[in-house]
Amino acid sequence: MTTVTTRTVAYTADGLTMIGHLALPAGADRRPAVLVGPEGVGLSDVERRRADALAELGYVALAFDLHGGRYLGVPEEMLARCMPLLADPDRMRDIGYAALDVLRAEPRTDPDRIAAVGYGTGGAIALELGRDGVDLRAIATVNGLTTGRPGETARIRCPVWAGVGSEDPIMSPPQRDAFTAEMQAAGADWRLVVYGGALHAFHHPPVDHSVLPGVGHHPQHAQRAWRDIVDLLTECLPMTE
């Protein structure tokens, strides 16, 4: 365990002032870094804690913002912003690039060793960065099995790990099949883990507001998915090379 330093960072993306959460490990040396993308509701303490946990493991971690500092706990409001965003790869990439620029500008970050981990909408953004040819060491997406524009997935330059609940009605079997077919056709280095009995956003602790149908926490699989992500980072983004 290392001593973690955190701070908020403000930056501009999608016409909004975004408020991200940067977590730094102890020391002064450059470290590999991880971009952490939140669910469609927006940046919350869940992603902030995950960034902190990654910093405890030695990574520089930035949990990025989606909605200009807002958390959209009303499902209708979240869908009204996220559905157009998910339908626009260029907007998603702009949000991802803005956060990536912040992470790369941090003096502790080794700019040549960065991975992206995202949940839901944040996972879709991580995939779009890969599809745009960003030099990432790994991409992990949990319940964000989106497909991209024809031919662009061949530009992904790193392993892709994906996790989904078997009972997720949003990332349904046809959506899973489309995602895996796209990855396979592109020749990507990909893995898909289906967590039996889990719903959409199974990794996210229970919340005190209404959620979409088919959303629910699965404590055991949440821990397993986190371990799988850490294993991916250990493989693809080791502390030393």
TrEMBL record:
Keywords, alphabetical: Hydrolase
SUPFAM superfamilies: alpha/beta-Hydrolases
GO molecular function: hydrolase activity
Location of the Dienelactone hydrolase domain: 20-235
Gene3D superfamilies in UniProt: alpha/beta hydrolase
Record's keyword annotation contains Nucleotide-binding: no
Domain of life: Bacteria
A family per Pfam: DLH
Keyword Hydrolase: yes
Record field: transmembrane: none
Family according to the record: Belongs to the AB hydrolase superfamily.
UniProt name for this protein: Dienelactone hydrolase
Organism: Streptomyces griseoviridis
